[in-house]
Amino acid sequence: MKWIYLSPHLDDVIYSCGGLIWEQVQSGTQVEIWTICAGNVKSPLSPFAQSLHERWQTGPEAVTVRRAEDLNACQRLGVPAKHFDIPDCIYRRLPESGVSVVNYEEDLFSPSNFGETLLVGELADKLAKNLPGAANLVSPLAVGGHIDHHLTRAAAETLRRPLWYYADFPYAAQEGEILSDYIHPDCCPHSFPISESALEAWQEGVAAYTTQISTFWGGLEEMKSAIREYWQGPKSGLLWHCTSSEVV
Predict the structure, then answer these.
(1) Is the pTM of this model over 0.85?
(2) Would residue 247 count as lying in a domain?
């Protein structure tokens, strides 16, 4: 059966599940990564979005560059990529007021904005139109509380179908994050082995996101060390399966 992983941004699934996906592909399993917030930039940019473009050294072509990085990363793992047209929250504006959804770093992790309530339904409709009925759908747990991770999970749960969940790395590795806070009681954990070869493929996949390394790490070696440490811990290779349609 095909596995479809939902990635809030152009990196999240490979950050979180790169080793597992490599193992699945090597075993002959059909896998796809669908990135939700891969849409074009909404102008004018907020000062916060501009500051990120400066750090990423992409200029106004940030989305184009990041899509190319994602295609490269997916190619390294041997998995097809699908990009949806919803813009990243750093580019979105509230429909009624026109105010930027994100103006400061802390806004990325604020509770869902009521002005974007309709976006959950819109995304759920897009997913429903594209999803094959027999696929295993894998959603982020939204560990860390990022707006777009919540959006992705909420839309997946609106579909009222069995779901699998993955822990959002590197947020899941941060001190103080308790995974059970994000997991519905009806969900059952499943552990999938990830080999040393899969770890190396995982690291190489993450390395393809050149513009994003500085978001979490001081460089490639620090990134590889962080993934190896996570791989050696109990959270790596875990997915949670929930057959209930009442997950919240």
Answers:
(1) yes
(2) no
